[in-house]
Structures are given as structure tokens and as C-alpha cells.
Amino acid sequence: MFGQEFAASAPDWANLPGDLLTSVADMVHSVRDRIRMTAVCRSWQTSLVDQKLNFPPCLLLTKTGDKCCFYDISGEEILVELDLPEIRGRRCWGSPFGWLVTWGPDLEIQLFNPLSKATRPLPSLRPLNPYLLEKPTLSSSPDDSDFDCIVLAIYSEHCSLAFAKPGDQAWTPIEDIKGVDDAIYFKGSIYACQSTGEILSYQDLRGTLSKAVVFPPLSPTPEEKSI
Predict the structure, then answer these.
(1) Would you tell me how many other CB atoms lie within 10 Å of the CB of residue 90?
(2) Residue 207's pLDDT is what?
(3) Which residues of 44-78 are buried (b: 16+ CB within 10 A; e: fewer)?
(4) 0.85 exceeded by pTM
(5) pLDDT at residue number 52
(6) Which residues pair with 163 in a beta bridge?
(7) Residues of the chain with confidence (pLDDT) below 50
């Protein structure tokens, strides 16, 4: 009898109103506590899926099974452990925005948020014959509605460069250029460094094929001229 009365009077935490839950989450500044809130139940995870979280720079370390742990570099401690079967067998790259770029044996690539479990599909890389995906880079968070998230990809054994947005039907190759060692997105332009040491800037990403602007080489210093 007592058990039935207690069960009837116990609060139904799973059915808290979403706006109330997000208001509480806004006042929680601990990363650990925010992560724990999303793990309470599915309804809480759904309500908090769009909540932004200032996650410190972490290393993603795999453990046994599907468990992964996030190692806080600044705090020098394991911040949280999560079960992530969604990335099993997939290669992962991190980003400054809390999202992972994952690439599977099927050559399909997608964005994945390990906290909310949200995903953003990207076009297949198959048409580009990508036997090697060297490095993907994000321009902004896929959650940020003020900016279009652009994903850069250095791919193939020739280290070519292409870009796409979540929801695009295909990747856009950036000219017939090879030997890209690194690339970043900065203030609306792509900057790429070639293995030859040249720095290229791609400033128009709205066209079907962007043109490169090659920076002139630096003038030699007096010491270099005397050699």
C-alpha cells in the first residue's frame, strides 16, 4: 500500500516540460552535469539536443567495446565516458565545435555530435574516387544558424581539395590542384598550403568551381641574398 502511494506521489521527471528543462540547463555551467542531464532519459536528451555547450578542448580516446572517453587537455583528466556505437568501425576527426567528422568503410561521410547523438549527412565521396581521406575541416558549427557550415576535405592519394555543406548533393572540387598539405576556412575564404610551400586563397565558394589566388613569394631577406 505504501509503495503504491509513494509511486503515485513521485515526480514524473521524464515528462518535465521542455521549456522548463532548457531553462534549468541554461543555469548549469558544469560540463559534466550538462552531459549527465542528457543521459537521464530519451525525453531529456531530445529536449536538450539543441542546447549549446561550451566543451573544453578534449582528446577522444577509445576504450573496450563502444566506450569512448573525452580527456580534458587543460584539466588533465577524463571528463566523461560515453557509449558511442554510432562510430564503431569509423574513422573520426575532431573539430573546435564539438562535432566529429566520421568516415566509414563504405566511404560515406557524416557529421556526428557525440553528446546529443545528432547527425548531419554529407555527400558521398564515391564520385571523387577517394581512396584516402586525409583531413576534413569545419568552418563553423552545424548548429549555428547564422553561418553555413562548410566542410573542407583533403582527399585521394594526390591530396586534392573539395568542399561541401550538410545537405548538398555532391562535393565541389577546387580546381585541378594537387599536393595540399593543410587547409583552413577563415572569414569567408579557404586558405590552402601546398607541399611546395605555396599558399592559395579560394575566395568565391558560390560558383561551381572556385579559382585560386596564389600569394606572391616573400622577398628574400638581406641575409638570404648574401648566401
Answers:
(1) 18
(2) 45
(3) bbebbeebeeebeebebeeeeeeebebebeeeeee
(4) no
(5) 65
(6) 152, 172
(7) 1-2, 6, 207-210
| The predicted structure's pLDDT at residue 215 | 61
Minimal CA–CA distance to 80: which of 104, 55, 105, 103?
A: 55
Give the pLDDT confidence score for residue 122 in this predicted structure.
92
Check residue 223 and give its pLDDT. 63
In 10 A of CB 147, how many CB atoms?
A: 12
**C-alpha to C-alpha distances, 162 to 72, 135, 188, 204, 221, nearest whole angstrom:** 31, 11, 15, 13, 35
Architecture of domain 89-215: Beta Barrel (2.40)
Cell numbers for 21, please give them.
Answer: 528543462
Q: Domain map of the chain by residue range? A: 1-48, 55-87, 89-215
Strands 160-164 and 199-202: unpaired
Scanning the structure block, which residue is given the C-alpha cell 568503410? 105
Distance CA 4, CA 21 (A): 27
**Which residue type does 101 have?**
V
Closest CA to 79 of 35, 44, 112: 35
Cα–Cα dist 94/115, whole Å:
13
Sheet holding 67-72, edge to edge: 58-62, 67-72, 77-83
Cell numbers placing 73? 587537455
C-alpha–C-alpha distance, residues 199 and 202, integer Å = 10
